[in-house]
Amino acid sequence: MAIQVKNNISWVGQRDWEVRDFHGTEYKTHQGSSYNSYLIREGKNVLIDTVDHKFSRDFVANLEKEIDLAAIDYIIINHAEEDHAGALTELMSRIPDTPIYCTTNAIDSINGHHHHPEWNFHTVKTGDSLDIGNGKTLIFVETPMLHWPDSMMTYMTEDAVLFSNDAFGQHYCDEHLFNDEVDQTELYEQCARYYANILTPFSRLVTPKINEILGFNLPVDMIATSHGVVWRDNPTQIVAKYLEWAADYQEDRITIFYDTMSSNTRMMADAIAQGIHDTDPTVAVKIYNISRHDKNEILTQIFRSKGVLVGSSTMNNVMMPKVAGMLEELAGLRFRNKKASAFGSFGWTGGAVDRIQTRLMDAGFDIALSLKAKWRPDGKALEECREHGRKIAREWALHPLNETRAPVQPVESACGCNAEPKADAGVSMICTVCQWVYDPELGEPLQDVAPGTAWSDVPESFLCPGCALGKSVFDPL
Ligand code: FEO
Fold first, then answer.
1. Has keyword Electron transport (predicted)?
2. Per-residue model confidence as pLDDT tens digits over 177-201
3. Taking the model in full, what pTM does it have?
């Protein structure tokens, strides 16, 4: 059943109360999801996005109750992933000549899934517009990597509605459509989970893209996402939240996760947490056994944390497989501005902790000393764990603790001269999107960047040879 969104805009999407898995089984949707499609009836009739392919028939049947399909003048596909463009085959079988407006990248994906290159595609890029009559216009804004290279948003003038697709959405199902109608705690839990698990790798792109959109100085009365609620009450609250989350977000919080063969590593986790709490009672500490808890919730907690402690028993001289899988996920999510440390119990040999430590370093965490215990920790070993927790609490503190410390002495220049070398001389930089590495020794001759050029001297016009994005997405390697 359609729901009026504003004036001549209706929601014609699909709720999915029972979906529990997204992206294979990697994202657990405990609160279901929705696939929001919108029908605009102005001088022209416009459909914005469709729904997941498994609801294709229901979608077209329901849409037909709202409008004669032949009367749809334009279809806008903001993003070609199957949860939004999935019903195209069913719909286009009924109206095969209807123009489809999307980005160039989206055509590749739509053809790859639907295999109809003869469809009437019209490519758009940022700033392009489409007159839909009654003095209203659709303006397109490309948003590559939010969340796929093909993604874009569509802004409707006069009504001032931004159809944002995945961005600002949540995997959240509720009979209510608008943000002011649902439980706010549930809503923001799902927003944070969605950002942490899906958008974190692209945080470097979020801020400039939002600023680009804000730079158009367009009023925004509603943000109509493609999952979850439509933001109509103070819609830019979620934009402000994204800017906060994209800025190396952290709270005064530490997450500990582990897997354990005989509870020995669990005992270490408990004692480390006690030590942290002893020294800094204000820091929030959460502990999870990764084999018993929702992985996406743990990742969300890490996203919120200033640091993470990762524990594993040693099994066959390596870490336990669920911990290894989680570390792979952490590497992909590319969390920034976070500290980390490994711990674990071992019996015959202790390979797990060293491997975890290396993987954490590769994933971009700022590493603290690790801790091992042989066999089941006794009273002395548990006190060492508590002391380790106290050290971690001191090293990772975000506020002064009740401790006396020696003042840090300034270090004299080794050469005794005033000349300061470039702070980034010799520092390689990695593209946080495609992992291409800039090596200052090699430069980038194809863009006239000579060997020996420090990153700070590379021109701002530089584009990553791997993904064509700018300098802002690079981090020190
Ligand atoms: Fe909701 Fe990227 O699809």
1. yes
2. 999 999 999 999 999 999 999 999 9
3. 0.86
